[in-house]
Amino acid sequence: MEKIRAWIGRMRTFLGEVQVELKKCSWPTGGELLESTTVVIVSVVLLSAFVALSDGAIIFILQAILPR
Asked: Is pTM beyond 0.70 here?
């Protein structure tokens, strides 16, 4: 039973320290968050398109070179 109380005490200390550290963080505004999200989505779409085109080109080249 003593181990459980010690564990609970350590968890309270840990969670208290986490709360203090989270108050020190600078959180983005709604506009900054929207801009960052837009950049990530556009980047993912562009990278996906590039990978798809590259994959299609490689398949086309390999099918032209290698017989079936």
From this structure: no
- Rounded distance between C-alpha atoms, residue 41 and residue 61, angstroms: 30
Instruction: Write the DSSP string, 12-33.
Output: HHHHHHHHHHHHHSPPPPHHHH
* Residue 28 CB partners (closer than 8 Å, separation 6+): 36
**Helix, strand or coil for residue 67?**
coil
Counted domains in the chain: 1
The residue segments making up the domain with residue 19 are 2-65
If DSSP codes are grouped into helix, strand and coil, which group holds residue 66?
Answer: coil
pLDDT tens for each residue of 28-67: 999 999 999 999 999 999 999 999 999 999 999 999 999 8
